[in-house]
Amino acid sequence: MSSPALQAHTLKVELGERSYPIVIGHGTLSQLGPAVKARTGASRAFVISVPPVAKRYGATVERSLVGAGIATRRFVIPDGERSKSLREAEKLYAALLAAEADRASVVVALGGGVVGDLAGFVAATLLRGVAFVQVPTTLLAMVDSSVGGKTGVNVKRGKNLVGAFHQPKLVWIDAATLKTLPRRELLAGLAEGVKHAVIRDPKLFAWLERELERLLDLDPEILLPFLARNCAIKAEVVSRDERESGERMLLNFGHTLGHAVEALSKYEGVLHGEAVAIGMSYAARRSEELGLAAPGSAVRLVALLARAGLPTELPRFPRRAYLESISADKKKRDARIRFVALRAIGRAETVPLLASEILPALERGGAKR
Amino acid sequence: MSSPALQAHTLKVELGERSYPIVIGHGTLSQLGPAVKARTGASRAFVISVPPVAKRYGATVERSLVGAGIATRRFVIPDGERSKSLREAEKLYAALLAAEADRASVVVALGGGVVGDLAGFVAATLLRGVAFVQVPTTLLAMVDSSVGGKTGVNVKRGKNLVGAFHQPKLVWIDAATLKTLPRRELLAGLAEGVKHAVIRDPKLFAWLERELERLLDLDPEILLPFLARNCAIKAEVVSRDERESGERMLLNFGHTLGHAVEALSKYEGVLHGEAVAIGMSYAARRSEELGLAAPGSAVRLVALLARAGLPTELPRFPRRAYLESISADKKKRDARIRFVALRAIGRAETVPLLASEILPALERGGAKR
What is the pLDDT of residue A362? Predict the structure, then answer.
């Protein structure tokens, strides 16, 4: 356990006065309290979590916060995407205000993407914004959703259509919490990690090809550098384009079709990361067909995802359903969609395409089969 | 009508990349469209208003927006404070998304504080933030709530407890719309204007003492400079302290007791500006008693408010009710309340006081009578 790889890594998301550290360690949950105190000066903490995570890690986190002189209360929301609702946010507003939340309070999200998105939205909007700390316990949240300040809830019309940009004061990653994460969720998180590599870092991609099995075994000597490199990529992109007006859109690689797969599946039976794996595979193949990506890029990406056990083929919904779904994508501007195309392993760019160009009628590898 | 006083005034709220102009004119509603286009580049506008304002001014605003090449839809919410709710926000999310709101859309608030606060909150949180333009049609909104980016809704526990800071891209003030504002609402707006003068600008205060009647007659030669000076004060304070961590708190002068009066009246029978007039009168007297304000300050302030026809005495609720109400004020930190005290006509500062120091047991001019 004294290997240099197990040293905590500290990165910084550079956003002027909204800058914040990401601290990545192994077995560090019990050291959260002093870091929260130092970063926020908060006198009260409200830990928001879901039942399985609260049960395993709630007491450790709370002991650490209380030990740092922060009065701490826990609020448990139901597990699952349905909790990302205005209804659930309203319940939290009432509960936190009843517990005397004020502007010197901090909201601590302990869990995965659902907890982070909902707790972050509540922190963004309670009293016009209180301090917020992310303690991600899923791989997806560690490599992706806990960094960057996107918060939100779902409404009838779609996912994340209501939300805010609200940067955390601190992201505290304890990689040891992944030991209790179901394998399927681990793989779903890996998909976003592969995404970072394929759009931006050919060396990371090649390293993943070599070390995939050790990573999935959660070998800390592989896991910690993997988390650090992923957070560094996310932090760089967010620093340059906080509100997704340009470069940050590249992080949507695989998401146009991924969102469609999720929506057409009614968000059942498919995890977000799995849908992204499918969407990336499709986007890479289509990028090659359009002459945008270097030949051989798609097969390398698909092979890595498949080797991890992730799905890579579009489910068989009618092409018209896919077309309608991607046309309603909230990232569209006018008629064209900013499709994130692959140029090579390690490089992506946005290309404005019509829905029918993304999903041509006779697409061999596509929805028609 | 060619007097120099009737020239449009343009001020700027300096907030780096979030800076925006405040344009103050007379009869300028029909020129809104090109300004919105220039400032936002929006292709779609959603005008949010209340029935009486929509009826009088909706068509003019919409014609101007459409003339500037912006597809425009109108959404009318019920008049009154009750519309500042999560329920109403949710209806607007659904309606705007159904009307194809996207990130190139702009939300235009046409009305008073309720419309601005609700529409601003929706703009802040729809798709994690879309462009927002304020077109205030009440004096309160013109001199105060339309500038500064505070948006919010009420929850059971209190007013404005959920919200966001979301700066508009443009504030467009047509003083001619005040002609149709009920006299009582005009006076309520005046109270916030007097507040700006008394906390910051002794010359403005003295000018108000001279010109009060012409102002209340809506003489444009008085009204326009009054609006311009008020917006300039608000803009200066907001530029230096966007998120109310310091100087901006001075704008809460009169609001500690003012909010208590509103809450104890259950927001019925008393307008916000009237409650602020009462709160300012109380705060000025108490500041003198505590030896903080120069003698004679309170009587001058109270005289001006009374001359306008504004209330200046606390309603007779039990002292205990006032104490409880101000202790629950969301601006408190720990036990002490940051009370905004008057030092002289034109100068205020925050003083940390216990609720019992703000409202002493035997207070002559206070709640006990």
Answer: 62
Q: Which of A88, A103, A117, A128 to mutate to test the interface with B (most CBs of B within 10 A)?
A: A128
Set out the domains of chain A in order of their start, with CATH numbers: 4-181 (3.40.50.1970), 183-369 (1.20.1090.10)
What pLDDT, in 10s, does the model give residues A24-65? 999 999 999 999 999 999 999 999 999 999 999 999 999 999
CB contact under 8 A, B162 and A43: no
pLDDT at B331 (0 to 100): 47
Burial class (CB in 10 A: 0-12, 13-18, 19+), A2: exposed
Q: Which of A91-100, A237-246, B115-124, B280-289 is the least confident region?
A: A237-246
Please answer whether residues B84 and B154 qualify as being in contact, where contact means their C-beta atoms are separated by less than 8 angstroms.
yes
Interchain pair A43, B156: CB under 8 A:
no
Active site (annotated) includes residue A242: no
For residue B362, the model assigns a pLDDT of 62
Contact A61, A29 (CB under 8 A): yes
Judged by CB atoms closer than 8 Å, whether chains meet at A165 and B43 is answered as no
Single out the residue of B272, B147, B143 nearest to residue B201, CA to CA: B143
Which residues in chain B have Cβ-Cβ distances shorter than 8 Å to A161? 93, 97, 126-127
Exposed, middle or buried: residue A59 (CB in 10 Å: 0-12, 13-18, 19+)?
Answer: exposed
* Residue A254 scores a pLDDT above 90: yes
**pLDDT attached to residue A273:** 97
What is the residue type of A272? H
